[in-house]
């Protein structure tokens, strides 16, 4: 049975370069994210943006967002709980790969969950604690290089 959950963005085209205005060395504007096909069994959505190409053992997490309503449409960032990113802050931090490191892939994951996320875990803690609660997941991938 094919998955119905999708994640899109009017600001990022799947497989394409992310515009400079969303990058860390520029304005780091938070991109708009939209979801559709949310499964009926979902009680919450979670969003994670992760760069697996970062020269760190587990890549670099740019954004974790919890407490999202299990409904289709634009993600309401204001109504969510931002978790930690790997820059030591909360909220979105834009792409900022090392100069000359080539293209990095930025995976925007949306997770439909069968139970609510407690607190604001790191990406790794979220995956470890809630992997069994994922009803469905989808991704959008953008690229960026310095």
From TrEMBL:
Pfam family, one: PBP
Xref: InterPro entries: PEBP, PEBP-like_sf, YbhB_YbcL/LppC-like
Record SUPFAM superfamilies: PEBP-like (SSF49777)
Protein family: Belongs to the UPF0098 family.
Descriptive protein name: YbhB/YbcL family Raf kinase inhibitor-like protein
